[in-house]
Structure formats: structure tokens, C-alpha cells
Specification:
- The chain is mostly helical and about 425 residues long.
- The chain has one domain (about 35-335).
- It is about 65% helix and about 5% strand.
- The strands form three sheets. A three-stranded antiparallel β-sheet has the order 1-2-3. The protein has a two-stranded antiparallel sheet with strand order 4-5.
- Residues about 1-30 have low confidence and may be disordered.
């Protein structure tokens, strides 16, 4: 994770701190900080790679209803507009953040000139706001006032909005870890209060003879499960981080897998409620994916901006609401398999059974430009210890390939267990 630069507290009577922007002289106008252009080629390649399978399944492979296809196209058009809006406003917000001294230094480039550059922090705020605007406006084009999904749709947006706010508060105040665990609990309240779906689970067929039930009603315990899922997903993305592009990259891969899963379930199911639940999920994931791609163009190596806890919390909550309200929380956890493994490996340090440094990052050698794994128990360092030293960019690509392979494994597992497990 990036180290946040924090100015020292001002003593009484001291003049106000100078802005990070250059101070203008009487004969020279103030100079705005100049950011490097985003990696649009990467964003275009990622968009084609992750949206092509979904598009093929939705418009070629499955004979989806014509009205559904029109709604998906409307959502896609608005999501594409959100991509360009995010591209436009991320540099604008970055300049404001630099003025307010919200920046960090890239630890993984320490010793190089790029390690001395002030990188604006918490730019996930822009993506979160653009996403919310798109999702809110989309209601006007799809849901009617008497729609049974409208309450849950607005509750989902309220939880996401709450999480963006609390994530930005964390970026500004740098709250301790015990507080970070509470923030998703607060943000999930609108979702929990508005949830009106089923609270039962289907017992796996191999366990049915031993349990004596095919369906188990959990009641209020199901909402406790939803709450724990929200806490896990938001924090798991936050701790599986530390290198350029990883936070956004992992959520882009998971979002693409969620889109594919949704359209496959719609195409293979004959239950109307199931189809509507996955349709609901598509409308929330599409704008999330496209706006995240805009942020990835700025956050890819070498990072122009840092996403901050604002984005990791926002991303985790956005995926939680689509998984819960789309009724595929088990599948969502399988998509989060790398995050689950990273959490399990991190437990000894997170709970202070062994010493835990503030930044569990690999060591960077400025002479070779390579990262070396430390003894810290997270996937970033484990991959370096298993596969050898490599550059930051190569390490991020390896971790994202592992994320994609885990998602593919999830699809294979569901296919193999269909009819036997449930």
C-alpha cells in the first residue's frame, strides 16, 4: 500500500500550509500539476477481453428475451458513457487531491526517481460517484414505481453510497484496523433492512440423508451471514493489495465472471424469479465494470493515481450487493477464492499472533528493478517466494491470471457438481 504523506500539525499562530501546487509569483501564474495520460490501450484490451464472452452469451448463444436484450443494451450504453466521464474527471479530482495534500509515495519504487513522485490518493471516490449516478439514472429507463425490485435496488445503492463515504473517511483519517471491520457493518444496514428475499438454503444432496432436510430455513441467521459476507468482501480486497493495478484488476476480473455467471443462469433457468434476480445483478455490475476499467487505465503500472480504501470498500460492497440480491452468494465466494486464501494466510499477522508490519510489501531492489518476497503471509509475497523475483508489473499480471483461473475453476466446479451437489 502507498504511504500517505501527512503534514505536521500546525502550531498556534503558524501560517497556513502551502498547497502542493506551485505557488504563483506576481509575474507567473500558478502551475497545475500535470499527470501522465492514462493507459487507454490497456483499458481497451481489458474491455474486449472481459466483455466479449458476456456479449456472445447474451446476444448469440442464449435466446434471451428481446426486452431483456434492449435493457442490457441501454445499461451498456450508459455504462460506456460512465467510462468516458470517469476518464475525464479522474485527472480533475487528482489535481484537487494534490492541492489538499492527499498523496502518497510508491514504496515499490523507492530509490528510483519515480519513487519521489507525489501520487494522488483516494481516486476511487470519482469512480464511486460516477457509478452511483449511472445506476440511479438507469432506474428511470427500466424500473417502474410499482416494481418489486425497486426497494432492493435503492437499498443496494444506499449501501454502496454509505461504503464510499466511509471509505473516503478512512482515507482521510486513516482509522485503525478494528474500526475498518466496523465500517462495512454500518454500510450494510440499508441492505439488511430492505432485504425481502429467501432466508433458506438448499442442503447439498450428499448431506440430505444425514440432515433429514432438503431445505434449511435460517431466518435471522441468514442476515448475519449477509453481514459477515459484506465485512469479508470489503476487507479482503483491501488486504489483497500493495502493487500497482492489483486492487482494480482483481475486481474487474471478478465483475466479468459475475456478468458471465448471470447471463448463463438466465439462459439456463426457467424460473422467472431467478431470471429477474440475475437480470438485476447485470444492471448493477455493468456500470461497475466499465467505470473500474477507467480507473485501471490510471492505476496500472506505473500508477498515476492510487485508488485508496475508498475504492476497495466500494468495490467489495458493490460485489456483495449483486451477489446477495442476485441469490448467488456461494458462487461469489468461489470467485473470491484468491482473497479467501490471502485472508487465511494473513490470519496470524492480522490477529497479531506474529508481528505484523504496517505495509506487508515485498522488498524492492532499485538496482535490478525486481521485487523480492518477504516472510509476510500474503499472496503477493507468497507468489514471489514460489515463482522467484520479478518486476511489479509481472507480479500483478501473475496474480490477475491466478484470479481468472480461480473464476474458471468456479465455473467448472458448478458444471461438474450440477445435479449431484444440489
Amino acid at each position: 500500500m502507498a504511504v500517505r504523506h501527512r503534514p505536521a500539525a500546525a502550531a498556534p499562530g503558524d501560517p497556513p500550509p502551502a498547497s502542493t501546487a506551485a505557488v504563483a509569483t506576481p509575474d507567473e501564474p500558478a502551475k497545475e500539476p500535470v499527470l501522465r495520460p492514462p493507459n487507454l490501450r490497456l483499458a481497451a484490451v481489458a474491455a474486449v477481453l472481459f466483455l466479449a464472452p458476456f456479449s456472445y452469451l447474451a446476444f448469440v448463444h442464449y435466446p434471451l428475451d428481446a426486452d431483456l436484450r434492449r435493457s442490457i443494451l441501454k445499461c451498456a450504453a450508459m455504462s460506456l458513457a460512465g467510462f468516458f466521464v470517469a476518464l475525464k474527471f479522474i485527472p480533475v479530482a487528482a489535481r484537487y487531491h494534490l492541492r489538499r495534500r492527499m498523496f502518497g509515495y510508491d514504496i515499490n519504487k523507492k530509490g528510483l526517481p519515480t519513487g519521489e513522485i507525489k501520487v494522488p490518493e483516494a481516486l476511487g471516490l470519482v469512480v464511486g460517484i460516477v457509478y452511483l449516478v449511472i445506476a440511479i439514472i438507469f432506474q428511470q429507463f427500466h424500473y417502474t414505481e410499482d416494481s418489486i425490485w425497486l426497494v432492493e435496488y435503492n437499498a443496494a445503492l444506499a449501501s454502496v453510497c454509505f461504503m464510499i463515504l466511509l471509505g473516503f473517511v478512512d482515507d482521510v483519517l486513516d482509522v485503525p484496523w478494528r474500526v475498518k471491520l466496523v465500517l462495512p457493518t454500518i454500510a450494510a444496514l440499508p441492505l439488511l433492512m430492505a432485504y425481502a428475499g429467501g432466508t433458506s438454503i438448499i442442503i447439498p444432496k450428499p448431506l440430505t440423508p444425514y440432515v433429514g432436510l432438503t431445505v434449511l430455513e435460517l431466518g435471522s441467521f441468514y442476515k448475519i451471514f449477509m453481514l459477515l459476507l459484506a465485512v469479508f468482501c470489503t476487507n479482503s480486497i483491501n488486504i489483497h493489495a500493495g502493487i500497482n493495478g492489483l486492487e482494480v484488476g482483481q475486481t474487474v476480473v471478478i465483475s466479468a465472471a459475475v456478468l458471465i455467471h448471470n447471463v448463463m443462469r438466465i439462459g439456463s433457468s426457467t424460473d422467472i424469479e431467478t431470471q429477474q434476480a440475475h437480470e438485476f445483478s447485470i444492471y448493477l455490475v455493468l456500470p461497475f465494470l466499465t467505470t473500474s476499467l477507467a480507473l485501471l487505465a490510471f492505476n496500472w503500472y506505473p500508477s498515476i493515481v492510487f485508488v485508496g480504501d475508498t475504492y476497495t470498500y466500494f468495490a467489495g460492497m458493490a460485489l456483495v450487493v449483486v451477489g446477495i440480491l442476485g441469490h448467488f452468494s456461494e458462487t461469489l465466494l468461489l470467485f473470491f477464492l484468491p482473497q479467501v486464501l490471502n485472508f487465511l494466510c494473513s490470519v496470524p499477522q492480522l490477529f497479531h499472533f506474529v508481528p505484523c508490519p504496517r505495509h506487508r510489501l515485498p522488498r524492492f531492489d532499485p538496482q535490478t528493478g525486481l521485487l523480492t518476497g518477504t516472510k509476510d503471509g500474503n499472496l503477493v509475497n507468497i507468489f514471489l517466494r514460489l515463482f522467484g523475483n520479478c518486476s511489479e508489473k509481472a507480479l500483478c499480471i501473475r496474480l490477475l491470471i491466478f484470479q481468472a483461473l480461480c473464476c474458471i475453476f468456479c465455473f467448472w466446479l458448478r458444471y461438474m457438481l450440477t445435479g449431484w451437489y444440489k
